[in-house]
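Customer escalation, tier 2.

The customer says the design service returned an amino acid string that "doesn't look like it belongs to this structure." They asked us to rerun it and document both sides in this ticket. The original structure tokens are below, unchanged.
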């Protein structure tokens, strides 16, 4: 059984910070690349951040570079997204996702809602 459970979202003012967490079970975690996606109302789901199996490589959506940091703890089977300097355009449901063999899964969890508003 594979489980991916996101948490840590909430309401924050512009300029604020949140840390999202993703708890993973049911797989050999260190064999999977991981990423955070987000989907805002009326918009396509987009990949926000990527991290390789060991954490040695990361990539980010241009609009979040310098503000968001993805990390992982393979011993705890956790992946995180630290979000700083949040903007209203960051408002979305954020999803944790796995990749194996350069192929992203197409099964999605419940996500966690991030709302940035004054």
């Amino acid at each position: 059984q594979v489980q991916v459970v996101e948490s840590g979202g909430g309401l924050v003012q512009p300029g604020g910070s949140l840390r999202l967490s993703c708890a993973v079970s049911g797989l050999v975690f260190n064999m999977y690349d991981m990423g955070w996606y987000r989907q805002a109302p009326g918009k396509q789901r987009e990949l926000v951040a990527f991290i390789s199996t060991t954490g040695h490589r990361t990539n980010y959506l241009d609009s979040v570079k310098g503000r968001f940091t993805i990390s992982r703890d393979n011993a705890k089977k956790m992946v995180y997204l630290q979000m700083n300097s949040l903007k209203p355009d960051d408002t979305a449901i954020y999803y944790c996702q796995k990749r194996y063999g350069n192929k992203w899964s197409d099964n999605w969890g419940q996500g966690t809602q991030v709302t940035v508003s004054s």
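Tier 2 assessment: The sequence is consistent with the input. The mean pLDDT is 96. The radius of gyration is 13 Å. Sent an explanation to the customer and offered a walkthrough call.
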